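Let's practice the habit of predicting before peeking. Look at the sequence and jot down your guess about where helices and strands might fall. Then scroll down.
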Amino acid sequence: MNNKKKITSIIVAASILILNLIFFANPSFAKNEKNFKKNSRYIYPLVFFKHRPVKFIEQLTQNEKRWPIALKSLAKAGYFLTQRHIKYSIIIAAYGPGLKAFVMKDNKKYAGVVETLHKEGIKIVVCGESMKEAGITPKMLFPFVKITYPGILSYIVEKEDQGYAFIKP
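Done guessing? Here is the structure:
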């Protein structure tokens, strides 16, 4: 399988996960988990999170063509989880090319969705080493973006150790 097919498969899988959260959390579709019987063809994944928080960290390192799906899906997930009173902790870990999504002057196209991410309580963390290599200063980033030193890898490992799922879109 070539890299393009792998990337497409990963994007599709992440989109399906987010759409499952959105679709099955829709109260007009399912008033509660009792509507789903053991032998039902429907799955209600949010029942699992009734008494525990949703915790995941998603990497953003790919090129700009994949940003809209990743960023908009995360913003929608935050909105729907909030609407269903499900506690969550979602973190975007940006490094490499993905870092530019959070540079204010480079991000006129996605500034609205980045602001929505912040409003929904989704934490954005960028790699200090990637910033140094790209010549990006902290003042160039949106003010709510956090910077991890020396790099993002140890931050991701720490979060996985704290029970976060790691998602690569």
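How did you do? The radius of gyration is 17 Å.
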